Input
Amino acid sequence: MPYAAVVAPAHNDHHGRGPVHSRSVLVRHPDGPTTSVVARLFDDRAIAHLQIRSVGGAVNDTPAAATACAHRFQNFSLNAAVRGGREEQADGLRDGLGEGL
Output
């Protein structure tokens, strides 16, 4: 395949957006209630991708009073890629977790 066929020409009309949105939430642990909410969102095809990251390391090594996030007690960050038109449904990621936040 020639290079010109791979790279789009500069005069192409690009709007800089796609159909996917995101939702993020901090949780204490990816426990039973958390995984149930996530599984439901996958089953309902509201989210296309989920990333779970530990927020440990330097974040937890810094005294809480020395940060702008002194109120933070959660240990994990969940980031979901939401399918277009499913934003309200994906808001359940936060709403359904309740005490897990």
Q: What stands out?
A: The first helix runs from residue 3 to 6. DSSP finds five helices and three strands in the chain. The chain has a mean pLDDT of 79. The helical segments are 3-6, 32-43, 58-61, 87-90, 92-95.
